[in-house]
Amino acid sequence: MAKLPTCRWGIITTGLISSWFVADLVLPRPDAKAHHIIQAIGASSLRKSQAFADTHLKDTPHHKPALYGSYAEVCADASVDCVYIGSPHGVHARDCLAAIAAGKNVLCEKAFAINASEARSVFDAARRAGVYVAEAMWLRHRPLVADLRKLLYEEKVIGDVFRATSDFQMYVDMKNAPATSRYRDLELGAGSLLDIGIYPLTWALLMLDSKLPGDGNGEGEGEGETPRIMAAQSFVEGIEVTTSIVLHYASSGRQGVVTSTTERKKGASQIVATIDGTDGFVEVEGGAPSHPKSFTVYPKWTGDEKPQGKRYDYESAQQGFIYEADNTALDLAAGRKESAVMPWSETIRVMEIMDEVRRQGGCVYPRERV
Ligand SMILES: NC(=O)C1=CN([C@@H]2O[C@H](COP(=O)(O)OP(=O)(O)OC[C@H]3O[C@@H](n4cnc5c(N)ncnc54)[C@H](OP(=O)(O)O)[C@@H]3O)[C@@H](O)[C@H]2O)C=CC1
Ligand SMILES: O=C1OC[C@@H](O)[C@H](O)[C@H]1O
């Protein structure tokens, strides 16, 4: 049996997402594609690293990470194979560039940067340093997504796809949020689009294009057609809180309707995306567009009653961060410098689309003002 690759992770920051990422990596599983070791944890203080390890690694004594009171020490740790960056998106470029300068491979949270220009500067640095860098857009790595794309574009289970919709709702009390909160601080990239709107946008890009990077053998063969964008944004306290985007694909006429808001609390379980085709439709169910758990394929609805659908379930003990971690380990083992699922060109394409949405909608970050 082939030996599984091992990735020794250096975790940078001890916020919410780092806790979710680590929780997935340390869960035992029978069908592992790679071994993951939490090798180091770095935070703004040693006390925070210690508290993170005490809380999130207390039941996994075989993970004994080095604990640091800075991010630089994680990057300098020769035992770390890949640095995972869980800081707010406004400082992703800063933290990526520091890790790259130290010669480290990087998996960085979404949104990868504030804009396409920042993303390009990080990839240019990675190219020069010869290290691996990838955006941790976990939705792209989910087996559910690959399976659904096969059904849509190889088996054509709903005929010709003509529309996709997705909406991400999350409540943030913006008026009372502290000025230092990443939901409020524009220097940290506050706004619904970069934080949550990126998922509905990703659903549309994934569901409306027949060929994309990551479809085939891991070499990223599709390029992705960039649709025409029509967008509007609304603001509370100067922060973008609601974004609506229509995407129109010139070659096929396909449309995407994608929205995000931090002004509305979501229910416990919901339909997080829909895909319409000439012969049927698909509803994706889950907790949020970032966290799909199943999908149901329906035949065309013509009568009064909703037709019977076929449901595909993807419930698992992990939240789903394990897939991006596995794929990173496999990329590194194969000597790749870019993710086979989310190559640099795709991160830049998404950032460019979000730049255009913000150009139309009016969300400008302070460092972008000339
Ligand atoms: N994939 C997913 O499902 C999710 C992704 N995210 C992404 O992860 C990133 C972080 O989000 P989240 O974990 O919710 O954020 P938190 O506010 O919970 O944590 C952010 C961490 O970033 C560090 N940090 C570094 N610089 C700053 C700064 N200038 N101001 C404030 N904090 C700073 C702090 O780390 P330290 O511990 O060192 O003090 C802090 O703990 C975002 O980019 C977000 O989009 C978030 C949630 C879910
Ligand atoms: O990526 C995300 O998904 C879940 C949300 O809670 C979070 O704000 C966002 O960053």
TrEMBL record:
Annotated Gfo/Idh/MocA-like oxidoreductase N-terminal domain residues: 8-134
Transcription keyword on record: no
Enzyme type, top EC level: oxidoreductase
SUPFAM superfamilies hit by this protein: Glyceraldehyde-3-phosphate dehydrogenase-like, C-terminal domain, NAD(P)-binding Rossmann-fold domains
Gene Ontology MF annotations: D-xylose 1-dehydrogenase (NADP+) activity; nucleotide binding
Keywords of the record: Oxidoreductase
Domain GFO/IDH/MocA-like oxidoreductase span(s) in chain numbering: 152-282
Annotated catalysed reactions: D-xylose + NADP(+) = D-xylono-1,5-lactone + NADPH + H(+)
Transmembrane segments: none
Assigned EC number: 1.1.1.179
Family: Belongs to the Gfo/Idh/MocA family.
PANTHER family cross-referenced by the UniProt entry: OXIDOREDUCTASES, TRANS-1,2-DIHYDROBENZENE-1,2-DIOL DEHYDROGENASE
Protein name: D-xylose 1-dehydrogenase (NADP(+), D-xylono-1,5-lactone-forming)
Organism: Anthostomella pinea
